Amino acid sequence: MIENYQPKFKKVIEHLQKELAGIRTGQASPALVENIQVEAYGATQPIKALASINIPDARTIQIEIWDSSVVKAMEKALIEAELGMQPNVDGNKIRLNIPMMTDEQRQKFVKILKEKLEEARVAIRQIREEVKKAINKQEGVGDDEKRRQLDNLETDVKDQINIIDEMGKKKEEEITTI
After folding, report:
1. Separation of alpha carbons 63 and 30, rounded Å
2. What H or E segment, with its residue span, contains residue 6?
3. By the number of CB atoms within 10 A of the CB, which of 64, 72, 84, 92 ranks highest?
């Protein structure tokens, strides 16, 4: 437990990166739609498993669906995802034009961003508490060694929180930049 907390920290950061990629910034990005689940072939699958996603310009997402029998289901999934964009269907292609975000929308996305950041911080702190308990329960380890392990853990936790904060600052800047 004491030695294997780094991969857990890494998982939290990777999860946060995926979450942040899905937050709208006013710029077209495949991450906005690639993980939206579509009812197709008797199961739910992400869009990226059913189509290729292209960005022809900064305000357009174009989805080229490989099987035309999935077009209606994909259109429905995009509408239900409430992205604030109306899908335009043209054969086996769906285009999403990204409108300019209002100040109200920007504030809403910043609020969502802050919630995601706090979830990641809480996850890091929970890992810290688990590891602290494991360190303190160790038998046959001196107090000096336990203190050293706890100090290393605190340093690592601070580093992870700083990474989360930097990711948040960068994303907030993307959201608030017009």
Report:
1. 9
2. helix 5-21
3. 92
By the 10 Å C-beta count (0-12 exposed, 13-18 middle, 19+ buried), 12 is classed as: buried
- Quick one: CA dihedral 37, 38, 43, 49, positive or negative? negative
Q: Give the domains, in start order, of the chain with CATH numbers.
A: 5-20+102-176 (1.10.132.20), 27-97 (3.30.1360.40)
Predicted TM-score of the model (pTM): 0.71
Please answer whether residues 162 and 140 qualify as being in contact, where contact means their C-beta atoms are separated by less than 8 angstroms: no
Q: Which of 4, 17, 19 lies closest to 156 in space, CA to CA? A: 4
- pLDDT, tens digit, for every residue of 127-157? 999 999 998 888 888 889 989 999 999 999 9
